[in-house]
Known about the structure:
The chain is mainly alpha-helical. The protein has one domain (2-213). Helix content is 72%, strand content 3%. It has helices at 2-27, 36-53, 58-79, 89-111, 137-159, 161-171, 173-178, 183-209, 215-230, 236-255, 262-274, and strands at residues 127-130, 133-136. Strand 1 and strand 2 form a beta hairpin. Helix 3 crosses helix 8 (183-209), helix 6 packs across helix 8 (183-209) and helix 9 (215-230) packs across helix 10. The termini are far apart. The mean pLDDT is 86.
Amino acid sequence: MLTILFDGIAYGMLLFVLACGLSVTLGLMNFVNLAHGSFAMAGGYITLVLVNRAGLPFFAGLPIAFVATALIGALFERTLYVHVYSRSHLDQVLFTIGLVFMSVAAVDYVMGSQQVFIQIPSVLQGRFEIFGVGVGRYRLLIIVICGLLTVALQLILSSTRFGSRLRASVDDPRVARGLGINVNAVFSLTFAVGSGLAGLGGALGAEILGLDPTFPLKYMVYFLIVVTVGGTSSITGPFAASLLIGIADVAGKYYVPKFGAFVIYTIMIIVLILRPQGLFARAAGK
């Protein structure tokens, strides 16, 4: 049971890093980016090419995946996304889902349709036991990296000048510009970091989730469940939702494998009935 709990926490941490960029763009920028999974897929394939084909060390491939995907996100944000910020959510959904299908077709053409995995160092393979609990080395690495990223992200959004500028830019862009805030630069940097985190999550998750051209479609529902269950008013909600969903999904597949993803959908329905705005949504008027 404790081993399943550990694996569920690792999976939940990974889901959070994959989905937190969507949480930021939807919750803070009020933009529905269903193509978020495409950036995660890009990070995974960039790391695959660097590690499996170019022979670069795995730990060197991770920061490159983050930077490269962040640059791709910044480019897309300035050339494409900026034109639909002011459009309705339906237009944003149609636009970004179109990008998803284009990315799926492009990756299938260039990389092939087979599922692939990134080669991880031998030191990260296998398990060891702590007080009778089987601890996977690679999953422990995921917990450590994702935990540090979660703390850093929370501090940046809540305790820095950039976080204040981002909230001001979202609440009232006109007033923010009047105060000297470069709203376009704030949005571009935010989108780039969110895309970079997705790419890093895709690189880390390729060994566990597998990597193929349908990755954005396969895990889009999981990203949306994390954001929906957790709420979009803070990072705390999606983080708690990721852990809840990760543990429930792993436990459900172990104890009741015939039900598949039924367990997490049940949790989502129950949470939304009891808390329609998400786990940590702010009360109205606050």
